[in-house]
Specification:
The chain is about 35% helix and about 25% strand. It is built from 4 helices and 6 strands; from the N terminus they run ααββαββαββ. The protein has a 4-stranded antiparallel β-sheet, with helices on both faces. β1 and β2 form a beta hairpin.
Amino acid sequence: MSEFEKFDEKTFTKPHHIREQQIIYKTIEQVGRRGAKEFYFRPESGAHALPGQVDQDLMDANPDDFGIRVYCGLLREDLVLLLNGDVKTKLDPNDCPNVGPHFRLAKRLVNALLKAEREGFIRFTSGGIEMDDDYEFEI
């Protein structure tokens, strides 16, 4: 399973999480139609997450619940790498046991892909990522 498929398999039961999950899927549809505009995403310490906006009243009412995050990589306006996520329970994603691993994977993977592109080993295209057959990289 891909990382996003693993996220998709998760069941969120709180009504505000169900609503956030719906917002995430609608945002993904919009990105597919209109491109990966920066305003769709939430920058978080070197990574990007969906949804872009989190309701401040919800955060105030739930101090240990910063909402659902799905981490991703913005590689090009027409190429987004959707990864995994969960309910964020700490302000700093590194401190959150739920999203921390997904956040760190997103940062490592995106940095490795961007470095490989700069070095000419991979190419980002509207169809995905093309990689030289003999190139291997570590994340």
